Amino acid sequence: MYHLLLVCLGGLLGGVARFLVSGLVARTVGETFPWGTMVVNISGSFVIGILAAVVQAHDLPALWAFAGTGFLGCYTTVSSFSLQTLALAREGEWVRAGGNVLLSVAVCLGAVALGLAASSAFAGGAG
Amino acid sequence: MGVMRDGHRQDVRDAIAVYAVVALGSVVGGVLRALASSVSLAIWGPGFPVGTLIVNVVGSLIIGFYATLTGPDGRVFASPRQRLLVMAGFCGGFTTFSTFSLETVMLMQSGELLVAAANVAVSVVTWLAAVWLGHMLATRLNRLKGSRP
Description:
Chain A: It holds the Pfam family CRCB. The complex is a heterodimer. By secondary structure, chain A is mostly helical. Chain A has helices at 2-29, 35-58, 61-75, 79-90, 94-126. At the A-B interface, α1, α2, α3, α4 and α5 of A face α1, α2, α3, α4 and α5 of B.
């Protein structure tokens, strides 16, 4: 129950942060390509890599509930990604739709790996 | 001057309402996602990230359906705030790209390359199929004759 409360709190902050960041990026670079959602998903994937390494090394389930499941879970989104990819495909923008899928998946996976590596490198250096 | 200040207050109230609605939807979506992932872990175990797959497919289906049902040609009227609650709030909080990425990289790093590749392929295909299916269902409903509320 305590962990579910932490998920609530993290989720509240994560959802608002996503709305802020994706809106800011979309207003800055325009909305012909869903950069806002991509920036959110890439940054969230990088941070979850760092967090996962820390949580595993120090056994911190409460931190994971708040920041992993709650904040980062709500900060990143698949539904907007799917809807925006569908919108591009329906407009006949097949290259952009395909590019959005490939770029999102490839860079997010890379960002997680980078986050994990950065976290363990830092922990190794500190220890 | 008084009118301007009232206008400004109204803007501030509207902005707060927008964030409150997104936050509320996110919290509900996030908690449901956490419950779904515990249940799926209990049923299917940790071999394949079924829980994340299910929430992302269901969230994509809902957003595709709702966006079209309440869109410009939609059958159902929803205020901008209601759309934010469901789409940016609930669906955004319910689905997660970061957990999908983490689970995939974890599978890769434990040598389960085939399972990782299957997770990526199955996820992307079913997410997009779900959002399309939701959109098509709502399009059908929108075209039905009858009273529009």
